[in-house]
Specification:
By secondary structure, the chain is an alpha+beta fold. It is 41% helix and 19% strand. The protein is globular and about 40 Å long.
Length: 108
């Protein structure tokens, strides 16, 4: 899948149990313009696995897209806050709610 991030094309790839996914559920590689996200293939219903993996997949994609936007606008290279995982999570989690409020207010 290809996504436009501030005029730069990023590829979203899905992987499961690969060496580069060993330490995370996803990552954004601004050098290759690639977002790689865990697809949890075959994990549905396994003990210790979240019950709604589709929601988790979407959350992970939003999180990595926030990283991509911060990289592409130049903020991630020169600031600690733009690479802060808590801030990126906050934007990724609250983004849909903010967008809905903008829609409801006729601000989009």
């Amino acid at each position: 899948m290809k996504i436009n991030v501030l005029g730069t094309e990023y590829t979203i790839a899905w992987e499961h149990n690969t060496p580069r996914m060993a330490l995370s559920d996803g990552f954004c590689d601004e050098t290759t313009k690639e977002i790689v996200v865990e697809n949890y293939e075959g994990d549905d219903g396994k003990p210790g696995v979240k019950a709604q993996l589709d929601i988790q997949r979407k959350k992970n994609v939003r999180h990595e897209l926030v990283h991509a936007f911060l990289f592409e606008c130049g903020l991630a290279e020169n600031s600690n806050w733009a690479q802060n995982e808590e801030l990126v999570d906050w934007i990724a989690i609250q983004g849909p709610k903010i967008y809905k409020a903008w829609q409801d207010a006729g601000a989009v």
